[in-house]
Design brief:
This protein is α+β, with helices and mostly antiparallel strands and 284 residues long. The chain contains 14 helices and five strands. It comes from Zhongshania marina.
Length: 284
């Protein structure tokens, strides 16, 4: 709407120029006092969940260069969850911030990749990034020289940066329980319908399996841990009645065979499913 209202195709790049460290609150303040440019970029990667839940950042090293890549998630119809303009603004915002924290207006990436198709006028993009730009790429990415990653930040303060890291991490953790609870409910609901996979569960939550795994990692848990928790809860529930045989229960919980279920059940409850059912019956 802003692009349509202004008639400026490169509006997102203009917007990116207004991005400052304080735009990202505690994360931004940690970036502002990072030791080096590399430390600042890595903070973006580690804490990307605080920026958006529809994408994530990856950093990789190619020869003497570092690739800072933005991966935008897609829905089940393979449509990007974030528009080109939003990521363009963020991408140039990162470049602006690196110039801000080093107080070096000439700190430029060596190349930029944008998913946006080639615009009619690419000059505003070139003036902003001041490096070669490739349009129509699969992902948005910045390429920096490794030597630039070692550049010191003007107001570096490692102790203060760590304090802001803790604030950011605490905020992310406070975001997490609702998602974990929803995920656990989905597992409980889906397990009785047959074997449940990460891909199937991710599809139910309208996200990629890679994003699902990333969210779980941020919460220091895993799909397997939540699956075991759900299986344990349902196993106890099913065995409390005689409606299902042990063979039926093993398949309802997604085990390939009864032996596998019995082996895991004994690890959970230190007894066999049959003994567990007898104990419940004995206690009325």
């Amino acid at each position: 709407m802003a692009i349509a209202a202004t008639g400026t195709e490169s509006f997102s790049i203009q917007l990116g120029g207004y991005v400052k460290a304080h735009s990202f609150h505690a994360l931004g303040m940690a970036i502002l006092v990072s030791k080096t440019v590399g430390d600042a970029l890595q903070r973006f990667q580690r804490h990307s969940a605080i920026i958006s839940d529809s994408g994530y950042i990856e950093m990789s090293f190619v020869g003497d260069n570092c690739r800072f890549e933005v991966n935008v998630e897609r829905d089940i119809h393979d449509i990007r969850l974030l528009p080109f303009a939003a990521i363009n603004a963020f991408t140039f915002g990162v470049v602006s911030m690196m110039r801000e924290i080093t107080e070096d207006a000439d700190l430029n990436p060596i190349s930029v990749e944008l998913c946006e198709p080639q615009p009619k006028d690419s000059k505003p993009y070139e003036n902003a990034f001041r490096c070669p730009i490739a349009f129509g790429k699969p992902r948005e990415a910045l390429m920096y020289r490794m030597t630039d990653l070692d550049r010191p930040v003007r107001y570096a303060n490692e102790s203060l940066a760590k304090q802001h890291d803790q604030i950011t991490e605490s905020f992310i953790k406070n975001m997490s329980p609702a998602f974990e609870d929803e995920l656990y409910r989905q597992i409980l609901n889906e397990l009785p319908n047959g074997e449940l996979s990460v891909d199937r569960l991710a599809s139910r939550l309208n996200m990629s399996s890679r994003k699902l795994q990333g969210k779980l990692q941020q919460q220091n848990t895993s799909y397997q841990q939540l699956l075991d928790k759900a299986r344990k809860e349902l196993a106890s529930k099913y065995l409390s009645s005689t409606a299902y045989s042990i063979t039926e229960i093993s398949f309802l919980l997604g085990f390939a065979n009864t032996a596998g279920f019995c082996r895991v059940f004994k690890r959970w409850f230190e007894c066999s499913p049959t003994d567990y059912r007898l104990r419940i019956a004995a206690h009325g």
